[in-house]
Specification:
This protein has 19 helices and 16 strands. By secondary structure, it is α/β, with parallel strands linked by helices. The chain folds into three domains: 124 residues, Orthogonal Bundle (Fumarate Reductase Iron-sulfur Protein, Chain B, domain 2), CATH 1.10.1060; 162 residues, FAD/NAD(P)-binding domain (3-Layer(bba) Sandwich), CATH 3.50.50; 163 residues, FAD/NAD(P)-binding domain. The strands form four sheets. It has a five-stranded parallel beta sheet, sandwiched between helices. A five-stranded parallel beta sheet has the order 6-14-7-8-9. α3 crosses α5. The longest helix is centred in the C-terminal third of the chain and has 20 residues. The chain is globular and about 70 Å long.
Length: 480
């Protein structure tokens, strides 16, 4: 700890967002960055705790006190080295991670936590801008071929680690470009796509082969994959969305969140969407069903497309503003989050269930909702039971409904079924502790086997799976 009184003398400071009236007109990243001097001040607030709970809370195990101290001291190149040792892609997590580390920050017990995520992105961007981030070329090749199916955060981290271990790695992507959910599921106003391209260019220079527009299991048969590669990692994510099984679901104008975001991201990237397939919120009353981050991304997207109104529905009660007794530190608290998208214009309604959807001429026109409450547990699992409150039914005008209720498991039709890998009780790909599936030499990482989760957890899984694949191929491993 370079400044033993930093957390006492300096208050938490963030850069905030670009002006609302400016950012609502474009898809550029909304978050600003503090100047270098301010970042060093924020780094000085880190206490380098005897037991750094931020490190414990970070899925990839970032050694946060170390690089915060280096930022404070102005040793940026060393900070890049320390940060990159644990995190393959700080430029992604620094933009989209919910900062589990900050929720566990010891300073946060009595004051505002250290600005960890903000310093993380500042470090890695300094590294790129100053030529410190360079491709790692492994001269000692193993002669082993590995296929990674899916180019999202799990697939990218797995592929990078295995390439750096000296293996011949091919990264398969079914869409036009690699990046998976980072490219097509995260709006540009949170993560501009040049950031992904910059990293992929480095990975290609390291020796990674990328095959896009290839749907493995359809364009590339599963049996061919098994014969052509020494090991395979399935990292295609959990893309099967949770549906809404109510009367009127068949009406036009009702879409899954991921379909909507993919269309928007492709349009923002200059790709053309066929006229009949275009999902556009311009001039419409939009209702987003689902109160999570994906739902918030849909809110921000609808506002940028010129929606007439945007309403977001959540079945759970409105979260508190601060920790309660059932959210003890350092566990990640379920607190009320108001994102930049919400600030841009959105009506939020909590504790409601969707009863039915009505419309005419084949198009949705109204969402019928009712208030709910959660009563004391009645089942053996101890889960609270949801109960509709009589007499609270109401309706919302809607000519575009976005279903953002999460994902249930990976898509089984196609590659998963062809390979014959075992499926767990929740519908995810079953893996052993070494990330291997029930089929020899076939591994899995990220949401496909973990279930829908955060990008940072997918990156952790990718790194961990790469280590086990390397061990499987070589008998031992030096990967971290």
């Amino acid at each position: 700890m370079g400044h033993e009184k930093g957390f006492l003398e300096k208050k938490r400071e963030t850069a905030g967002y670009r002006p609302l009236e400016e950012r609502i007109k474009d898809y550029r990243e909304v978050e600003k960055m503090l100047p270098k001097e301010k970042l060093q001040e924020q780094g000085s607030r880190c206490m380098d705790c005897g037991v750094p709970f931020c490190h414990y809370a970070c899925p990839v195990g970032n050694v946060i006190p170390d690089w915060n101290d280096l930022v404070f001291r102005g040793q940026w190149a060393k900070a890049v080295e320390v940060l990159s040792a644990a995190n393959n892609f700080p430029e992604f997590t620094g933009r989209i991670c919910p900062a589990l580390c900050e929720a566990a920050c010891v300073v946060g017990i009595a004051d505002d936590p250290v600005t960890i995520r903000q310093n993380e992105i500042a470090i890695i961007e300094w590294g790129f801008q100053n030529g410190v981030i360079k491709p790692f070329i492994q001269e000692n090749k193993t002669g082993k071929r590995v296929a990674v199916v899916g180019s999202g955060p799990a697939g990218m981290s797995c592929a990078q680690q295995l390439t750096r271990a000296g293996h011949d790695v091919t990264l398969f992507e079914a869409d036009d470009k690699a990046g998976g959910i980072l490219r097509y599921g995260i709006p540009d106003f949170k993560l501009e796509k040049w950031v992904i391209d910059r990293r992929l260019d480095l990975m290609k220079k390291e020796g990674l082969k990328i095959e896009s527009n290839i749907c493995v299991g359809k364009d590339y048969p599963a049996q061919r994959l098994l014969k052509s590669f020494d090991a395979i990692c399935l990292a295609m994510g959990a893309r099967q969305p949770r549906d809404l099984k109510v009367e009127g679901r068949e009406f036009g104008g009702i879409h899954f969140a991921m379909d909507y975001l993919i269309h928007s991201n492709k349009r923002a990237g200059g790709m053309k969407i066929p006229e009949g397939a275009l999902i556009d919120a311009k001039g419409k009353d939009v209702v987003v069903i689902g109160g999570g981050d994906t739902g918030a991304d849909c809110v921000g997207t609808a506002n940028r497309q010129g929606a007439k109104s945007v309403t977001q529905l959540e079945v759970l009660p409105k979260p508190p503003l601060c920790r309660t007794k059932d959210m003890p530190w350092p566990a990640y608290p379920k607190l009320l989050k108001t994102s930049s998208s919400h600030e841009e214009g959105c009506r939020r309604i909590w504790s409601v269930t969707t009863k039915k959807l009505t419309g005419s001429g084949g198009r949705v026109e109204k969402v019928h909702i009712a208030e709910v409450e959660f009563v004391p547990p009645k089942d053996k699992a101890g889960r609270p039971q949801m109960r509709e409150i009589p007499g609270t039914e109401t309706e919302l005008k809607a000519d575009l409904v976005i279903l953002a209720m999460g994902f249930v498991h990976p898509v089984h039709v196609g590659l998963v079924k062809e390979l014959g890998v075992a499926i767990g009780p929740s519908g995810n790909i079953y893996i052993e502790n070494n990330f291997m599936t029930s089929v020899k030499k076939v591994f899995s990482a990220g949401d496909a086997s973990r279930g829908a989760s955060l990008a940072v957890w997918a990156m952790f899984d990718g790194r961990a799976a790469a280590k086990e694949i390397d061990r499987y191929l070589m008998g031992s491993t030096n990967l971290p």
